[in-house]
TrEMBL record:
Domain Mur ligase N-terminal catalytic: 27-101
Subcellular location: Cytoplasm
Any one Gene Ontology cellular component term annotated for this protein: cytoplasm
Stated role: Involved in cell wall formation. Catalyzes the final step in the synthesis of UDP-N-acetylmuramoyl-pentapeptide, the precursor of murein.
Record PANTHER family: UDP-N-ACETYLMURAMOYL-TRIPEPTIDE--D-ALANYL-D-ALANINE LIGASE
Coiled-coil region list: none
Pfam families xrefs: Mur_ligase (PF01225), Mur_ligase_C (PF02875), Mur_ligase_M (PF08245)
Top EC class for this record: ligase
Gene that this polypeptide is encoded by: murF
Residue ranges of every copy of the Mur ligase central domain listed in the record: 111-297
UniProt protein name: UDP-N-acetylmuramoyl-tripeptide--D-alanyl-D-alanine ligase
Keywords: ATP-binding, Cell cycle, Cell division, Cell shape, Cell wall biogenesis/degradation, Cytoplasm, Ligase, Nucleotide-binding, Peptidoglycan synthesis
GO biological process: cell division; cell wall organization; peptidoglycan biosynthetic process; regulation of cell shape
Residues annotated to bind ATP: G113, S114, N115, G116, K117, T118, T119
Length: 458
C-alpha cells in the first residue's frame, strides 16, 4: 500500500495545500470509510447525493487516521489536525492513485467485459501467482472509486496487478484505463449488460473499447476474436500488439477439446494440443475466460507447467459458479452474483450438460438493466430451456415470469412455476429436492437470489 509523507502527497495531488507543520507526517494506506479505517490511513471524505464524508473526519482521526483530505469548498474545517486541502476529494483520490501507479514498477493487467471479467481476473491472478508477486482487485472495487483504491493498495514490490474495470456508461472505462495505464488490456466479451444506459450492443462495444485509451505504448491488447463489434474497432485503431481468443480457428488461441466433468472443466488449446488443462469450475463458457488468462500468462513468460498449477489451485470470487455440497446430498450451483442474457444462457446450458444427477432444477430471477427489450430477452431464455435436460424451472421476480410463460409451453404441467416470495419458493424447493439433485441459482445482483440458500437451511 502507499506509504508517503504529506510532503510527497502534496506533489502527487496538483494544487493541494498542506500546513507546513504537517509535511513530515506519514500516511500508510488510504480509506474512504471510517467503519473500516486503519491506524495511519489517509482518510478521503467523499461527497454524494445523500452523504458527505466531511462529517466523519473527526471520527476518522479518533480512530487513528494520520491525515485527511478536505475540500476547499467545505466550511468548518477542523483545527490542529493534518489536513490536505483540495478542490475535489474524489478527483484528488484519482490523481493520487495515478501518481502512485506511475511511481511503481508493477505491471498492470486491466480487465473489462460484459461477462466473465471477475472470473478472468481471478484466473489471471492465479496463473501469474505461480511465479510472481501478484495482487488483484478485491471484491467489487472496479469503479471510479474502487480502481483508485485498488491502485493505492498495491505494495511497492508487487510485480503484477490484475485490475478489474466496470462501468455503467460512456467515459467510465476511459477514466479507469487512463488512471491505471495498463500494460495489458483485455475485453472478455460484449454482451447485453447496461443496454438501458448504452442503448445497443454497439454502444456497449464502444464503451468497453475505451480500455485501450490508457494502454501503455506498445502494450498488449487481448480480446474475444469471435466478436465482430470488436474486430471492427481493432481494425480502425492503431494497436501495435494484439492477441485474440475464441472458439473460431481464426483466433490466436482457441480450444481443441472441452470436457465438463463432475469436478470441473478440462480443455486443450491449439498452442499445446497434447496438454490438458483442468480447472475446478463448471462450464464450457469458462474456457473463454481461461484462454484470456493463458494469453496473459504467455505475455509474462509463464510455462505450461505453471499454467496448469495455476488453474488447479484456482479460487474464484463467491457466487460465480460456486459449487455447494449440502449434507443431504443436494448440490447447489450458486451463480447468483449477476446475470445477463449471455451469462444466463451459459448457466442454463451448463446445468443441462451435467450428468449423474436425479433432478436438475433451475431457479432463475430477473435480469436487470436491459432497457426496452427486457421482456423479449426473458422470453428468449424461456424458449431455449430444454425440458429434456432440465427437469424444473422456478422463476423469481416480475420480469422472470416471462421465462416461465415461454418455458411452460414445452414442459410438463407443474414443472415450471413463478414466484414473487422467496420464502414460498424456498419452501417448495425444500419439498421437491432429495439426495442426488442439483440446483442452479442465477439472477441479477439486485435480486439477491443467493438468499434462497439460507432459506433452504431454515
Amino acid at each position: 500500500m502507499i506509504i508517503r509523507s504529506l510532503a510527497d502527497i502534496q506533489t502527487m495531488i496538483p494544487g493541494s495545500i498542506i500546513d507546513e507543520r504537517y509535511t513530515s507526517v506519514m500516511i500508510h494506506g488510504v480509506s474512504t470509510d471510517t467503519r473500516t479505517i486503519e491506524r495511519g490511513n489517509l482518510y478521503v471524505p467523499l461527497k454524494g447525493a445523500t452523504f458527505n464524508g466531511h462529517q466523519f473526519v473527526k471520527e476518522a482521526f479518533d480512530k487513528g487516521a494520520a491525515a485527511a483530505l478536505w475540500s476547499k469548498h467545505e466550511p468548518n474545517a477542523p483545527k490542529d489536525v493534518p489536513l490536505i486541502f483540495v478542490d475535489d476529494t474524489l478527483v484528488a483520490l484519482q490523481q493520487l492513485a495515478h501518481a502512485y501507479r506511475k511511481q511503481l514498477r508493477t505491471r498492470i493487467i486491466g480487465v473489462t467485459g460484459s461477462n466473465g471479467k471477475t472470473t478472468t481476473k481471478d484466473m489471471i491472478a492465479s496463473l501469474l501467482g505461480t511465479v510472481y508477486r501478484v495482487q488483484k482487485t478485491e471484491g467489487n472495487l472496479n469503479n471510479h472509486i474502487g480502481v483508485p483504491l485498488t491502485l493505492l493498495r498495491l505494495k511497492e514490490d508487487t510485480e503484477y496487478a490484475v485490475v478489474e474495470m466496470g462501468m455503467s456508461g460512456f467515459g467510465e472505462i476511459e477514466l479507469l484505463s487512463t488512471l491505471a495505464e495498463p500494460d495489458v488490456a483485455i475485453i472478455t466479451n460484449i454482451g447485453e449488460s447496461h443496454l438501458q444506459e448504452l442503448g445497443s450492443r454497439e454502444g456497449i462495444a464502444t464503451a468497453k473499447f475505451e480500455i485501450v485509451k490508457g494502454l501503455q505504448r506498445g502494450g498488449l491488447f487481448i480480446y474475444h476474436g469471435d466478436e465482430p463489434l470488436l474486430q471492427t474497432r481493432v481494425q480502425q485503431c492503431m494497436l501495435s500488439h494484439v492477441e485474440t481468443f475464441g472458439m473460431a480457428k481464426t483466433n490466436d488461441y482457441y480450444p481443441l477439446d472441452i470436457r465438463v466433468q463432475a469436478d470441473g472443466t478440462s480443455f486443450t488449446v491449439n498452442r499445446w494440443p497434447n496438454e490438458m488443462f483442468h480447472m475446478p469450475l463448471l462450464g464450457r463458457h469458462h474456457v473463454m475466460n481461461a484462454l484470456a488468462a493463458i494469453v496473459v500468462a504467455r505475455f509474462a513468460s509463464i510455462d505450461v507447467a505453471h499454467m496448469k498449477e495455476g488453474f488447479s489451485r484456482l479460487t474464484v470470487t463467491k457466487m460465480r459458479t460456486e459449487v455447494i455440497k449440502r449434507d443431504d446430498g443436494v448440490t447447489i450451483i450458486n451463480d447468483a452474483y449477476n446475470a445477463s442474457p449471455t451469462s444466463m444462457r451459459a448457466a442454463l446450458e451448463l446445468l443441462g450438460q451435467l450428468t449423474g444427477y436425479r433432478k436438475k432444477i433451475a431457479i432463475v430471477g430477473d435480469m436487470l438493466e436491459l432497457g426496452d427489450q427486457e421482456i423479449a430477452f426473458h422470453e428468449q431464455i424461456g424458449e431455449m430451456i430444454d425440458p429434456q435436460s432440465i427437469h424444473y424451472v422456478l422463476t423469481y421476480g416480475t420480469r422472470a415470469k416471462a421465462i416461465a410463460e415461454r418455458a411452460s409451453e414445452r414442459f410438463r404441467a407443474g414443472c415450471v412455476r413463478s414466484y414473487d416470495d422467496k420464502r414460498k419458493l424456498a419452501a417448495d424447493v425444500q419439498a421437491l429436492i432429495s439426495a442426488g439433485d442439483v440446483i442452479l441459482l442465477k439472477a441479477s445482483r439486485g435480486m439477491k437470489l443467493e438468499e434462497i440458500i439460507s432459506l433452504l437451511n431454515e
